[in-house]
Structure formats: structure tokens, C-alpha cells
Design goal:
Elements: H1 5-9, H2 14-30, E1 35-39, E2 42-47, E3 50-57, E4 61-65, H3 67-73, H4 75-80, E5 90-93, H5 100-113
Antiparallel strand pairs: 1-2, 2-3, 3-4, 4-5
């Protein structure tokens, strides 16, 4: 978690800072095999050098990004839970409980789905 100390301490709102620290600590403890890093000014978790999930913050929410494949795989779950999302980002409002179960499922999916990928990002599928 030392990797994220500077990022967390720069968050002005104490409630937001506590939420970010709680979520990042939860990921670290739930998936101790993942490596931590800051890239593009965002906390990220990787597995064997490949991106698993990243986090960002705004005034209205904390977001996580499990890549488009991670979001599209869980599209129905996101809609059922009424969680705001796009193709590339899942937004968890500050004033609502964080959906750890869905985050856990998305991380587990990415770990398994990217087990044989040796690049940081998934290869782009050409149509």
C-alpha cells in the first residue's frame, strides 16, 4: 500500500480519502498476489505485468476500470445493480455503498481471462 500513499494523501475530502484507502486496502488484502503501481496518476493493480484494474476519483464518484472486456462481461450485473458505467469505466458514487462483490468478480475475471496475456493491455480485436 505504500505505493499509493502519495495518491491517497493528496485527496482533499477526508471521507473520499478514507473510501479510497479502504477500497485499495481491500483489493490488496483480497488479492495479495497483485502488484501495485501508479500509472497515468492512477492507482493500479497488475498481475504478471498485465493490467487488472485501475482506480480514479472525481467530485461525484470513485471509479474503477477493468478494461472494456471486464465491463462488457458484467454488463447485465452492472445494469441489475443500477451501477453507472460506460464501456471503459464503472462509477461508484461517494454517497452509496461500494459494491465489493462485483469488483471482486471483475478482478477474478481479469486475472483468469488475462492469465496468458503478456502485454499490459488486452490485444485490440480488429473487426
Amino acid at each position: 500500500m505504500n505505493t499509493f500513499t502519495e495518491f491517497i494523501s493528496a485527496i482533499e475530502d477526508p471521507k473520499h480519502r478514507a473510501r479510497v484507502e479502504e477500497v485499495l486496502t481491500w483489493v490488496s488484502e483480497t488479492f495479495p498476489q497483485l502488484k501495485t503501481r501508479i500509472a497515468w496518476n492512477q492507482p493500479m493493480f497488475t498481475d504478471h505485468g498485465t493490467f487488472i484494474v485501475g482506480f480514479s476519483i472525481s467530485k461525484k464518484h470513485m471509479a474503477f476500470t477493468p478494461e472494456e472486456a471486464g465491463i462488457s462481461h458484467f454488463e447485465d450485473d452492472l445494469k441489475a445493480a443500477k451501477i453507472d458505467h460506460t464501456k471503459g469505466i464503472v462509477r461508484m458514487p461517494w454517497d452509496q455503498p461500494f459494491n465489493y462483490e462485483l469488483l471482486k468478480q471483475m478482478i477474478e475475471f481479469n486475472i483468469q481471462d488475462k492469465a496468458k496475456i503478456d502485454k499490459f493491455w488486452r490485444p485490440v480485436k480488429r473487426t
